[in-house]
Q: What sequence folds into this?
């Protein structure tokens, strides 16, 4: 018996779900990406269960998430113009500052000032 099932045997639970018209399947995947405005949620090596009932499907996804910020070309150009930075420097600064444009500009300005003082 598994904890969390109210002491019910998993085989009995599966039989009851089948009687109610609920079908579950495991989905094999190496990665799940959920695209959001400004960021992606990436789940590597996820455990995915597809639950089908009355013509509708629901997916249950579990695993370790990693947030990846997205930067637009406009943001990169703004940082480049504000600091006289290269595209690579601007991208790296935005990435290290989690997409915060103001922080990326300040970081590059400080870096440029430190290099001048050396």
A:
């Amino acid at each position: 018996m598994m904890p969390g099932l109210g002491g019910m045997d998993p085989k009995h639970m599966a039989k009851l779900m089948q009687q109610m018209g609920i079908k579950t399947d495991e989905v094999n995947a190496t990665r799940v990406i959920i695209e959001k405005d400004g960021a992606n949620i990436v789940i590597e090596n996820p455990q995915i269960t597809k639950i089908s009932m009355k013509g509708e499907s629901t997916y249950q996804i579990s695993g370790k998430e990693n947030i990846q910020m997205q930067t637009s070309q406009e943001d990169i150009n703004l940082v480049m113009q504000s600091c006289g930075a290269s595209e690579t420097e601007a991208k790296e600064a935005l990435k290290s500052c989690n997409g915060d444009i103001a922080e990326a500009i300040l970081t590059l300005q400080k870096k440029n000032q430190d290099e001048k003082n050396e």
Notes: The beta strands are 22-27, 31-36, 39-44, 47-53, 56-62, 65-69. The first strand starts at residue 22 and ends at 27. The chain has two domains: 22-68, 72-117. The mean pLDDT is 88.
